[in-house]
């Protein structure tokens, strides 16, 4: 049974419909999504009808067609532009985040008439710092791509997750525990999105989600994994 994850911020926008679907559940029939490559490429929804017509990691919805991303442990980020009533779905793993996919999506919305303070952003289910160990040497390569301070984005000790429904990832190296949702948050803040407009649902795919939701858990237990679709659209009316 999949768990329904909701965003308080997006729930408050009556013109928006969205879902962070459980792993393995099919997306809506008329959805548009790209062939994802951990890139900074953002396209219009029409470019990915039918789905995977082209490579993109960010997709903008101009009409009522839902736009989606599929993820396992990477971040799905859903954005609503309250000024133009446009929406965007972003696939933001560590690599794509550092490549600039979030900045590029905000820029693209602003080229079309949005302003950053009119954007509302929900950061969906992804591997959280309770389960995301990286080699410490990764911090310096991350720092080369991110101009701000990383001090809030990682922990020396593995954080305990009181909401875990299965064991957290075991340390496999003397690494650090990285907070990708926090890095995404800091990038969005730098892009001008107000803190009050950014919500991290705080749902870890490794230790909180249904079975088969985590790519990394699969690499540890060979338990299999399935993609999770997250989508957003402007409501018809
Ligand atoms: Zn976890």
TrEMBL record:
Q: Which reaction does it catalyse?
A: S-methyl-5'-thioadenosine + phosphate = 5-(methylsulfanyl)-alpha-D-ribose 1-phosphate + adenine; adenosine + H2O + H(+) = inosine + NH4(+); adenosine + phosphate = alpha-D-ribose 1-phosphate + adenine; inosine + phosphate = alpha-D-ribose 1-phosphate + hypoxanthine
| Pfam hit, one | Cu-oxidase_4
Q: Name one GO molecular function term.
A: copper ion binding
Q: Which InterPro entries match?
A: Cu_polyphenol_OxRdtase (IPR003730), Cu_polyphenol_OxRdtase_sf (IPR038371), Cytotoxic_necrot_fac-like_cat (IPR011324)
Q: Does the keyword Endoplasmic reticulum apply?
A: no
Its domain of life reads Bacteria
Which keywords annotate this record? Metal-binding, Transferase, Zinc
Residue ranges crossing the lipid bilayer per the database entry: none
Question: What PANTHER family does the entry give?
Answer: PURINE NUCLEOSIDE PHOSPHORYLASE, UNCHARACTERIZED PROTEIN YFIH
User: To which protein family does this belong?
Assistant: Belongs to the purine nucleoside phosphorylase YfiH/LACC1 family.
Protein name per Swiss-Prot or TrEMBL: Polyphenol oxidase family protein
Which source organism?
A: Pantoea piersonii
